């Protein structure tokens, strides 16, 4: 290690040695990064973990850099818990969570948070529904009071539902219907996943939204919104014990519910390549390729997801990665290309490639070029140099990400909600550092196989853009002094 | 790709709302000096994380494009594509192997070139040296110019298939007419095709100079180290002079409407006028006033009327973008094609009422509480701190801007808001652009 006491001292700030319930994960990087000595000994997150008697889990991540706090409540429910006919119900319910309880009429939740200088939002994913507030640290109780209230006392008024489902349909038009690449992805996922609930879009199919009713929401709320199905993640300038006591006060009084049960709905074996074409008005063609792969939660071999993670970085980690170097700058066959892998999913997922062809190139050509890169990674071990770059990037990202308290809370919440332990967050860098060139090659050979591939192509139809359809109320030019 | 969807869309724009509650909180200590060659430096020490962020901002936004719309952006894009004899592959590898992140971006007022690096000689030294090479010795190789030209053109085609992008481009064109703010920072396909290497080189030579630069540094370095960093990254940069003033934006004389057909299920709407500039005496009244009107997410008047009461749009908002010259005042929404005119009518009614009467006493109090109470969130990370010291530096706002901001917010009255909105906004002279309606 470089002997630099100033730099080491900087990190002491994050290392107030208070032992709290749950592990405090501290570790030091051993050895070197990228063949160079590490300039510092990073201290991992100081995290405390508690449970309430009603089964609610509380995880507190301390960060004392600024007098602020983020509070996130994560429910183990999302689009992948849904079945046909009610797709999108988790997300519509998330919208309805702002529409009033017995104590607070519709709209008041947001008003109270706003008057406390807070920012709030909520998000729905495949595997979770989460709500958050960001506040000056002394206002944390405001968030707890309101979240505890809507965990149990939601009104679900029919007249509010009738309006809000229309807002969600507008959201679907904005995000999916009028965005040709999103629509292609939606069709692609519905093809790649046959029996897995990842088949359905998070926002739901339009026809399901049109036929959703208040009973669907009531049943969903009753089934999944309970303290024993929730994780509270608090990050910021807080004292963990005080957070625990405050949570006990507001959430501790909510009784435990019968656990919601979900069928496994595992994806069936794919026995051959699947191809689809999506035709929409667009200017650009677009290609998506996805291979069935395990994720951290489902992997039989613990190291495999980390090797797949490294593989994604080798392909598309940064400007020096293979897709940009070889396909964008080298052959200039794509205008943009990406490779991605979502290690934090609840169910088996996809290793994805996407691309937009350069002028004059076709999707067939870019598929061919991507396949050449895929074959290469199967046939040749990645170079030491490339692997070291990836590992350095991961170590650097680990430092940079600590600038965002929100992001760290997100990581904890995601891990816990898909059924993994938040401590995996602190193992991540070491696990990545342990991946060998042979392992990257092995996962490429094992998982990037033709019979487990789905390919979708966006085939552009003309936009027929007619300018100046109507022109009322003023001149279209020269409207100034 | 949709992986997660939010409850409501947050419109990401460069409006930094900085509020300071003097009784409770200390604002970051901003150190300010000039480099030997005259670049203005703004520095905030943040020792907690072993990293440093550096932004160098040139008064070289797309308003400087001249006849070649997109020139500033094209130039910035090419910085990492060859410099000091290193090619783009080598540059990418060198940043990658030390974990450094390089970026360059352009808006209407500025070109911002950024570096994020770990501290420690093994990382920071080579990162700073390479950053300096890219800033001062770009090669602009012909083959990289041609490749990036093609990629920019593809990006423009992507915008042409998005009603949200078309509406923004058209809105600015109508709002600003012949003013340089009218053209899109990415340029147009016609202009991008005409840009030559000479133009790019001249643009760089003229605007990437110390006399036209502001440097912002935040991170785990001392003031002395920051001084060295500022000198080091600008070493070899011509001294140069500050860019000339950009033209004044003139007010709209009459209303303008443009409806563009697009095969989408929704129609995207933008309405507005030239609004406010940095340092404007009406700034605080307009900022607080807009917070009530359409700047406070779900609790704003526009959101209440259009989304909460009528379920007509997922996202509806208004904002002022304070720029060097009058930035846009914009109201935006998207709605199912067949209810477009109804939505526009609702917006007009809300706006007209607001211009005439201003906020209620209760609304004003609520907005002030949100703005002032949320101040600590604005400076809660290095990224946020560097964002606003860049802004203070670039627009030449006073160093105690933050300390006085809270008082400025709290001193805004209903009458001031009402008076400023009445004087500055006129529905009878607004631009309205719609895109959609063909499906």
Topology of this protein?
The complex is a heterodimer of chains A (481) and B (439).
Chain A: H1 5-12, E1 32-33, E2 36-37, E3 46-51, E4 57-62, E5 68-75, H2 89-96, H3 108-115, E6 119-125, E7 129-136, H4 140-152, H5 158-177, H6 180-192, H7 206-210, H8 214-224, E8 230-236, H9 240-251, E9 274-281, E10 286-293, H10 304-316, H11 322-330, E11 334-341, E12 349-357, H12 363-379, H13 384-400, H14 405-417, H15 424-433, H16 437-447, E13 453-461
Parallel strand pairs in A: 4-8, 9-13
Antiparallel strand pairs in A: 1-2, 3-4, 5-7, 5-8, 6-7, 10-12, 10-13, 11-12
Chain B: E1 4-6, E2 31-34, E3 40-45, E4 51-58, H1 71-78, H2 88-97, E5 101-106, E6 111-118, H3 121-136, H4 142-160, H5 163-176, H6 189-194, H7 197-207, E7 213-219, H8 223-234, E8 256-262, E9 266-274, H9 283-295, H10 301-309, E10 316-320, E11 328-336, H11 340-357, H12 361-373, H13 375-378, H14 382-394, H15 401-410, H16 414-424, E12 431-437
Parallel strand pairs in B: 3-7, 8-12
Antiparallel strand pairs in B: 2-3, 4-6, 4-7, 5-6, 9-11, 9-12, 10-11
Q: Based on the structure, what is the oligomeric state of the protein chains?
A: heterodimer
- Overall form of chain B: globular
- Sheet-strand content of chain A, in percent, reads 15-25%
**Total beta-strand segments of chain B:** 12
Please give the largest β-sheet of chain A. 6 strands, mixed
| The CATH topology of the largest domain in chain A | Cytochrome Bc1 Complex, Chain A, domain 1
How many individual β-strands of chain A? 13
Could you name the CATH homologous superfamily of the largest domain in chain A? Metalloenzyme, LuxS/M16 peptidase-like
Instruction: Give the biggest beta sheet of chain B.
Output: 6 strands, mixed
Residues in helices of chain B, as a percent range: 40-55%
Termini Cα gap of chain A: 67 Å
Head-to-tail CA distance between termini of chain B: 23 Å
Rg over C-alpha atoms of chain A, rounded to the nearest angstrom? 25 Å
Count of discrete alpha- or pi-helical segments spanning 4 or more residues of chain A: 16
């Amino acid at each position: 290690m470089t002997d630099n006491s100033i730099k080491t001292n900087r990190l002491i700030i994050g290392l107030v040695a208070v032992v709290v319930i749950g592990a405090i994960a501290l570790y030091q990087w051993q050895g070197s990064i990228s063949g160079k000595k590490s300039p510092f000994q990073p201290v991992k997150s100081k995290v405390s973990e508690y449970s309430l008697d009603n089964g609610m889990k509380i995880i507190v991540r301390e960060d004392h850099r600024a007098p602020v706090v983020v509070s996130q409540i994560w429910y183990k429910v999302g689009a992948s818990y849904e079945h046909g006919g009610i797709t999108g119900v988790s997300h519509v319910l998330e919208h309805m969570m702002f529409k009033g309880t017995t104590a607070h009429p519709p709209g008041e939740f947001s008003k109270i948070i706003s008057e406390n200088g807070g920012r709030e939002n909520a998000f729905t994913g495949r595997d979770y529904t989460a709500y958050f507030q960001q506040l000056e640290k002394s206002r944390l109780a405001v968030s707890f009071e309101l979240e505890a209230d809507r965990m149990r006392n939601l009104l679900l008024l029919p007249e509010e539902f009738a309006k809000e489902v229309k807002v969600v349909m507008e959201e679907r038009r904005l995000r999916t219907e009028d965005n040709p690449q999103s629509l292609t992805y939606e069709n692609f996922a519905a093809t790649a996943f046959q029996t897995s609930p990842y088949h359905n879009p998070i926002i739901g199919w339009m026809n399901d939204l049109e036929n959703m009713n208040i009973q669907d929401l009531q049943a969903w709320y009753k089934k999944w919104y309970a303290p024993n199905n929730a994780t509270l993640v608090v990050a910021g300038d807080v004292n963990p014990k005080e957070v625990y006591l405050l949570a006990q006060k507001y959430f501790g009084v909510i009784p435990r519910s019968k656990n919601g049960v979900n069928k496994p709905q595992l994806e069936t074996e794919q026995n051959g390549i699947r191809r689809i074409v999506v035709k929409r008005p667009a200017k650009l063609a677009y290609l998506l390729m996805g291979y069935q792969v395990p994720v951290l939660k489902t992997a039989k071999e613990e190291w495999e997801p980390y090797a797949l993670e490294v593989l994604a970085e080798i392909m598309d980690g940064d400007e020096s990665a293979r897709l940009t170097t070889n396909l964008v700058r080298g052959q200039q066959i794509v205008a943009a290309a990406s490779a991605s892998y979502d290690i934090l999913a609840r169910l088996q997922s996809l290793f994805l490639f996407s691309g937009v062809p350069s002028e004059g190139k076709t999707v067939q050509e870019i598929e061919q070029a991507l396949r050449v890169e895929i074959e290469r990674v199967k046939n040749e071990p990645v170079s030491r140099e490339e692997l070291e770059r990836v590992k350095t990037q991961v170590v650097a990202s680990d430092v940079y990400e600590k600038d965002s308290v929100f992001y760290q809370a997100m990581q904890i919440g995601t891990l816990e909600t898909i059924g993994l332990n938040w401590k995996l967050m602190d193992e991540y860098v070491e696990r990545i550092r342990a991946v060998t060139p042979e392992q990257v090659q092995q996962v490429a050979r094992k998982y990037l196989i033709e019979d487990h591939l789905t390919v979708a192509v966006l085939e552009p139809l003309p936009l027929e853009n007619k300018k100046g359809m109507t022109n009322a109320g003023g001149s279209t030019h020269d409207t100034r002094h | 790709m949709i992986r997660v969807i939010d409850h409501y869309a947050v419109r990401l724009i460069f409006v930094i709302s900085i509020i300071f509650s003097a009784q409770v909180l200390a604002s970051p200590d901003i150190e300010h000096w000039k480099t030997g060659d005259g670049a203005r430096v703004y520095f905030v020490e943040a020792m907690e994380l072993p990293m440093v962020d550096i932004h160098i901002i040139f008064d070289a936004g797309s308003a400087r494009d001249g006849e070649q719309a997109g020139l500033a952006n094209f130039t910035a894009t090419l910085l990492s594509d060859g410099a000091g004899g290193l090619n783009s592959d080598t540059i990418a590898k060198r940043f990658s192997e030390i974990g450094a992140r390089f970026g360059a971006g352009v808006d209407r007022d500025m070109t911002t070139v950024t570096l994020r690096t770990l501290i420690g000689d093994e990382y920071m030294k080579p990162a700073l040296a390479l950053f300096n090479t890219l800033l001062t010795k770009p090669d602009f190789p012909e083959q990289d110019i041609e490749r990036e030209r093609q990629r920019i053109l593809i990006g423009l085609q992507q915008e042409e298939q998005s009603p949200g992008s078309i509406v923004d481009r058209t809105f600015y064109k109508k709002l600003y007419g012949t003013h340089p703010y009218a053209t899109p920072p990415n340029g147009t396909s016609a202009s991008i095709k005409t840009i030559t290497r000479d133009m790019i080189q001249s643009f760089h030579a003229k605007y990437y100079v110390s006399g036209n630069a502001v440097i912002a540094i935040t991170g785990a370095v001392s003031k002395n180290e920051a001084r060295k960093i500022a000198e080091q990254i600008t070493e070899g940069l011509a001294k140069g002079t500050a860019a000339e003033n950009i033209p004044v934006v003139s007010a709209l004389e009459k209303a303008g409407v443009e409806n563009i057909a697009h095969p989408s299920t929704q129609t995207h709407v933008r309405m507005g006028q030239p609004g406010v500039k940095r340092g404007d005496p009406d700034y605080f009244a307009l900022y607080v006033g807009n917070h009530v009107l359409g700047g406070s997410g779900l609790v704003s008047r526009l959101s209440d009327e259009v989304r909460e009461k009528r379920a007509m749009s997922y996202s509806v908002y208004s904002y002022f973008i304070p720029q060097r010259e009058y930035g846009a005042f914009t109201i935006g929404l998207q709605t199912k094609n067949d209810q477009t005119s109804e939505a526009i009518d609702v917006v007009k009614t809300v706006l007209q009422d607001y211009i005439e009467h201003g906020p209620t006493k209760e609304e004003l109090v609520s907005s002030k509480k949100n703005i002032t109470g949320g101040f600590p969130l604005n400076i809660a990370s290095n990224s946020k701190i560097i964002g606003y010291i860049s802004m203070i530096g670039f627009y030449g706002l006073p160093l105690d801007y933050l300390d006085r901001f809270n008082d400025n917010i709290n001193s805004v009255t209903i009458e001031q808001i009402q008076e400023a909105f009445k004087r500055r906004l006129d529905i009878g002279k607004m631009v309205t652009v719609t895109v959609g309606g063909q499906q």
